[in-house]
Amino acid sequence: MATALPTDPAAPDPSDAPPRSTDTEALGRELDRIRAEVLARRGAEDARYIHTVVAVHRRLEVGGRLALAISLLPPAWLAGTAALTTAKILENLELGHNIMHGQWDWMRDPAIHSTTWEWDNPTPAYAWKHTHNHIHHTWTNVVGRDRDLGFTVLRMSEEQPWRPVHLLQPFYTALGAPFFEWLAALYDLEADAVLQRRKPLRAFLRDAVNTVCKGARQAAKDYLLFPLLAGPSAVPCLLGNLTANTARSLWAHTVIFCGHFPDGVRSFTEEETEHETRGQWYLRQALGSANIEGGTALHVLTGNLSHQIEHHLFPDLPSNRYAEIAPRVRDVLTAHGIPYTTGPLLQQYASTWARICRMALPNLHRAAPGRPRGEDPA
């Protein structure tokens, strides 16, 4: 059974050679040491960081809303839409995602605690924490267990069975990207789990009602309340809100896909995770993730998920620490012969789309499955 970090709140490219034999328990001890050092050093610097992000987010949202209230003037529309878009991206990725991982619970501040945060998103926080924190981060890239491996509609591994509908996946992936936040809300309902008798119908209906109510509130806020408050600027205000939400969905879709599906990222079978140790779990996280290279602004706007490898290894560490520990993590993995998949945004994006298109076709041959335990194939 897969081993989750005790503090967690909850397809290989055939051209890639598997990692050489490595001592996974030594790997685990080295990564545990990095994690323990960061936990011991959390303090005022981290608190200043998250409070600064919260303050910037609030100012951007208020400024954007005020500018859109007078958005009959084109400069006001452009400024308001840009500010609101940035605010929504920060709230979704650097705040919502990371707060709900429990990264800031140690501060005991109810305003940024994983048990109290409700994000600006159609998906209720509790539903997302179940599908993301518990299922995805425990079973990362395990075919048949990690629902994020293709989000139940995409084929992203040669280990997944091919069906004729997958021929269309490049088209429905592109069409769905602008509506990613709404599709994610439907995904988090786990309708497939009901059909497979893994989720009671009563729980599904409860979650469906909660999601519809949450989504209705989100839509009413952005597409009814604030446009009405804008009076003569109602139509451009509505269009500004729609643009901000669409841009956020496109950006989140890009960041998430580039962190999970470029070439070099591997998938695994359930059999390979049986009796998985902590070191083997770490190895699977490293092989099942990819980073995006860039500057500070990119890292913050991705919620530091540009350091997806570090995030999957240490989902409960403060996100502002990922850039600091990334060189050490890379050195540890390299010393053990483990690939560290990384590249610029455009490279990772192109690689991801190449995989989407490649996996839309039936297997031409059977690729060797990923080896989460680091066994030497020879």
Automatic annotation (TrEMBL):
<dbReference type="GO" id="GO:0008610">
    <property type="term" value="P:lipid biosynthetic process"/>
</dbReference>
<dbReference type="InterPro" id="IPR012171">
    <property type="entry name" value="Fatty_acid_desaturase"/>
</dbReference>
<protein>
    <submittedName>
        <fullName>Fatty acid desaturase</fullName>
    </submittedName>
</protein>
<feature type="region of interest" description="Disordered">
    <location>
        <begin position="1"/>
        <end position="26"/>
    </location>
</feature>
<feature type="domain" description="Fatty acid desaturase">
    <location>
        <begin position="76"/>
        <end position="342"/>
    </location>
</feature>
<dbReference type="Pfam" id="PF00487">
    <property type="entry name" value="FA_desaturase"/>
</dbReference>
<dbReference type="GO" id="GO:0016020">
    <property type="term" value="C:membrane"/>
</dbReference>
<dbReference type="GO" id="GO:0016717">
    <property type="term" value="F:oxidoreductase activity, acting on paired donors, with oxidation of a pair of donors resulting in the reduction of molecular oxygen to two molecules of water"/>
</dbReference>
<dbReference type="InterPro" id="IPR005804">
    <property type="entry name" value="FA_desaturase_dom"/>
</dbReference>
